[in-house]
Write a structure and sequence with these properties.
Chain lengths: 403, 123
């Protein structure tokens, strides 16, 4: 008997064959599906790799040093800028701690503060490090270290971005040295002009006529302006470099300073017939740096004399006692006042109010800025109240004599 | 008796102005152009007060002050630093060596300097 079907496989029924075909088909479909998703996954991965490569390339070729470490501080990545800047290659750096390579030269407390910030608080640490290159050369970097956290807030790694600021620091230092040297060199001839014009102005032998004395007075005024300029330049350089003013406190009478400053401004006060009323009690003692308070009062009183209209008043008094060992002194002028729109800029460096600029073209706009810094260095504060066309009152708080 | 003052300063013009002023005020004035000579003059004349510059040849004012404080006769001598340096480091060094004033020359009139000296010598 011939077979029932030509497709028949010996020993397997047609039914069984059909079932096997179905299984095969379904398997094939599944495989095709899997293959498709694998292909999609492959494209995805490739895209991610391209993306990662782009990031890697960006980090690799960034101009700042980028160092990535594990939570223990062991380096697993440095970029090319770091290799160039430190002299260590990628392979030399990986697996090491920055302290074994370029770091470890700062005070231990400084590193402790850094670890506290990035590891305990998980905040960004911003600071400066003095490090050493592989060739032994010292360099300074401004650093910014942040901790990268996982979804549970655990530290995955630290990323440190560092910029070599050695050159900037050097320029800054040179600028300071220059300002120091120049001001010292300028002060010597300025002293000569000051002292000799003072001697001549006394006109002991009365052989100078009034006009000649007036000319001499002008020499003296110009000389004082230059001295002030040099002093301001030094003060600004001091503030800019973040140095604190050294305050040498002693007890002294406020009125001793005020009288000295009034004498300095006497010719302007007389010329403009200004009425200066000093209501400060003669026994008021403050605990402060005499020279610096003289500088502050000299600024306030000379401004008041400059801007008060002829024949009007300047009033100096104790405005308040804050009850916490500070007294508040005020210097009030009857000048043009500060335009409302410009009030917030008054203590800014180089700022001069428009109306002041019109009236008096000379002036650097540094005096008040420095004066407030000097008062703050004493733990006090300086502020003002002003009404346009009426006048301005400057206030400053200063420590009283300790009883 | 006239008070004796020693001026240690290397700028001849400034010496001229300040000596003139103190002579007018009836002081007996001695001068020296550097710290080394200043120290010798101080030992020789035992002035009531020394006005000393800082930046000078041979021995600067701070070195002179330090040397002065190391001597028996000079350890309590009244000294005012009169200089055009105003950096903290020099000021602090001078004050730590018991200079009782540190004055920046260009900030003071001669009459104010005399007043400060007199005030110290009267007390």
């Amino acid at each position: 008997m011939p077979p029932k079907s030509t497709t028949a496989v010996p020993g397997i029924s047609a039914d069984e064959l059909d079932k096997t075909k179905d299984v095969y088909r379904s398997l094939q479909e599944k495989l095709e599906y899997l293959f498709d998703s694998l292909a999609r996954e492959k494209i995805n991965l490739e895209l991610q790799m391209i993306e990662a490569k782009k990031f890697r390339l960006a980090v690799d070729s960034a101009s700042d040093n980028i160092v990535i470490t594990d939570p223990m501080g062991t380096i697993f990545y440095i970029n090319k800028a770091t290799e160039k800047n430190t002299g260590y290659t990628f392979n030399e750096a990986v697996g090491k701690n920055p302290g074994e390579l370029w770091g470890g030269h700062m005070d231990q407390n400084y590193y402790a503060a850094m670890w506290g910030k990035i590891k305990t608080k998980k905040e960004v640490f911003i600071g400066q490090f003095e490090n050493t290159r592989k060739n032994g050369e010292k360099y300074i970097v401004a650093v910014d270290i942040s901790s990268v956290l996982d979804e549970y807030g655990e530290i995955l790694f630290f990323v440190s971005i560092e910029r070599d600021i050695t050159r900037e620091m050097m320029i800054e230092r040179m600028k300071d040295e220059f300002v120091g040297l120049a001001s010292h060199q300028l002060r010597t001839p300025l002293t000569g002009i000051r002292w000799f014009s003072e001697l001549l102005l006394r006109n002991k032998y009365q052989n100078l006529n009034q006009e000649q004395l007036d000319f001499l007075e002008q020499i003296k005024v110009s000389n004082q302006r230059m001295i002030k300029l040099v002093n301001e330049l030094l003060d600004i350089s001091h503030i800019e470099t973040g140095q604190k003013f050294e305050i040498k406190k002693a007890d002294f009478k406020v009125n001793d300073v005020i009288n000295e400053v009034l004498t300095e401004n006497i010719s302007l006060i007389k010329t403009k017939s200004l009425n200066v009323v000093n209501e400060i009690p003669d026994n008021l003692l403050i605990f402060a740096d005499y020279v610096k308070i003289r500088q502050v009062l000299s600024n306030l009183i000379s401004n008041a004399s400059k801007y008060t209209s002829a024949g009007k008043n300047i009033n100096i008094k104790v405005a308040a006692d804050d009850g916490h060992g500070f007294t508040v002194i005020s210097v009030a002028d009857e000048g043009m006042g500060i335009p409302t729109a410009q009030k917030s800029h008054l203590f800014e460096k180089f700022f001069r109010a428009d109306n002041a600029r019109v009236q008096e073209s000379n002036g650097t706009g540094l005096g008040l800025y420095i004066a407030r810094e000097l008062i703050r260095a004493h733990g006090g504060e300086m502020w003002f109240e002003s009404e346009e066309n009426k006048g301005t009152v400057f206030f400053f708080s200063i420590p009283l004599k300790i009883n | 008796m006239r008070k004796k003052i020693l001026i240690v300063e290397d700028d001849v013009l400034l010496v001229k102005a300040i000596s003139y002023e103190f002579e007018q005020e009836n002081f007996e004035v001695f001068t020296a152009g550097n710290g080394e000579d200043g120290l010798k003059m101080a030992e020789q004349h035992l002035p009531d007060l020394i006005l000393a510059d800082i930046n000078m040849p041979k021995m600067d004012g701070l070195a002179m002050l330090k040397a002065l404080r190391a001597t028996e006769w000079g350890k309590n001598m009244l000294v005012i630093m009169l200089t055009n340096y105003s950096d903290e480091q020099r000021v602090l060094e001078a004050l730590s060596q018991k200079a009782f004033y540190y004055l920046v020359k260009s900030d003071w009139d001669l009459s104010q300097i005399v007043a400060k000296v007199k005030e110290k010598l009267v007390n």
